[in-house]
Each structure stands twice: as structure tokens, then as C-alpha cells.
Model the fold of this input.
Amino acid sequence: MDSSTTAYCRRLEQALGGAEKLADVTGCCAQERLTGNQIAKIFHTMPEEYARTERISLVSSFAASLFLGDYAAIDYSDGSGMNLLDIWTRSWSPDCLQACAPGLEERIGLPVASYSALGAVSSYMVDRYGFSADCKVIAFTGDNPASLAGLRLDRGELVLSLGTSDTVFTWLDHPRPNADGVNVWVNPLDVDAFLGLLVWKNGSLAREKVRNACSGGSWDTFISQLQSTPPGNGGNMGFYFYEREITPSIVGVHRFDSQDEPVSSFSAETEVRALVEGQMLARAAHTTNLGGVLGTACLACLLGLVITLLVVTMLCWS
Done:
């Protein structure tokens, strides 16, 4: 995970009047991986290359461009994850654009609704691959908005994605953006609704690191160790932030025994369950920041369900 743009994040927040003010506009505080801050880094460290740049695309809009045969517009939903879009007006924030780089709006173009028809497929795609000339290209979007649409997520439902970064997202009608790691994006299915998203950098890479250290690199062993320890881990808890985390902003490995005293290490079996339970408790607890869609009574149920699903998933991987 690229964390080289911290200085540009702080500059963007300062330009908007602070992290909370930026979150009020763009749906989240400044984050290193987001496109606006990456662009700011390029502008300041490679000004000649930036000056020669005609167009800046997201991966989603670039992929659409290949089918369109022309520059494709960035959609509202994926564009919300750039620290540049005003999520309320669904237009680029002039203050954010100015804080990141000059001439940025002309390089990224005007955003459009995620379900917009951008035009007909290119003649190349017709001639080379046999597409119908009447085929229309609809705006492409990002993985999380596409997951919300593809899973037909309804109000009150949550999705937990376990990946390089772990994410939790849900449909929101009345979001409360804040600077505590919550991301609020324009909903890909309804421009008057929103997608609430939480992201954790220390997802599968943290699980793999503990697997390699405690389980000899074997998921089978990892699962056996997890199943050999009781829920609650005898009161032992661990928090594993090998990279500076987003939610919350913290780094380091922190272990606590059943007396809530810091300890330097656990047995291999205890370490495995401490990692999994600590991660899943964090996912459940912070999900309440998405707008109270999850009651506290559901947290224990979610934790047990997720651990079961995690075991099944790892069995499939192995």
C-alpha cells in the first residue's frame, strides 16, 4: 500500500479547512492511496511529466475507453474515491482541484452517473471482435460500487470483503461523513443515495504474515490452529497493524493477555486466533460508524459468522 503521499494529504486537508471539512465535501478525510493525493505527488515531483499529460483516467474509466475508442468519463461512484468529488453536488470540488494540481479538471473530464451510456462501441471492436455496431458502452465503475450493484445490495444489508485490503460497505440514504476512516461515495445505482465504505489496509497480507510465522506458510495448519482454540481466546487479544492502518490510524503489533496486560508474544495457536478475532471485532465495531446500520447486539453474531466464513474461504484457497 503506497503511503508516500502523506504530506500531500495534510496539504489538501489544510486547504479545505481541516480533515472534517474535507470529509464533509468529498466523503472522507485525505488518504494516501486516493487519486487526488497521488496526482499532487506527481505534479510536485515530476512537473514536466504532469505538464505533458493530456488525460488522467481511473482504471475503470480507462477500461471503458478501450471499448469506446475515446476518453471515457469517470463515473460518480468510483470518482468519489479520489478526494476530489463533491459527493453532494456530484461535481469536482474547485478547492480540491486547486489544492492538488493546476489544470486538473481538464485532464480528468466531467464525471457522469455510473449508469450513463457513453456512446457506441468503437469501430475497432466491431471489426476485430465482432461487436454489434449498435452496442453501447455504459460507464465503468470500481470494484466496490460494482459489488454493491452485482450483489443487488438492499438497504440495511452489509458486505464484508476479505482481500488485500478488507472492506465493509453498505447502502446509505443519510450518510454522516467524518474523518474517522469512513468513506462515503455516490451510490452507483441511485445518484441521490450513497455507498458507505470502510477500508483496512491490514487485511489478507496481515493474515498471510501470521500464517507464515506461525503456521509454516500452510493454510491447513492455520485453520487447525484456529479451530483448536476456544472463541474468546481465553481473554487474549491482539491487534496486528503491519502498515499504518486507516481505521483507526495506528501502526504496530499490540498483544494483551487475559488480565489486559501487554505481552510481547503468544503461542502460535493463540496468535492465530488473536489475529482473526481482533480483525473481525474491529470490522464489526467500526461498522457502526457507517450510520448505525448494525446494532451492538449483532456484533457477536457477525463475529462468529465471519470466522466461520473465513475458515471456509481458507479451506477453498488451500
Notes: Residues 144 and 275 are 25 Å apart (CA to CA).
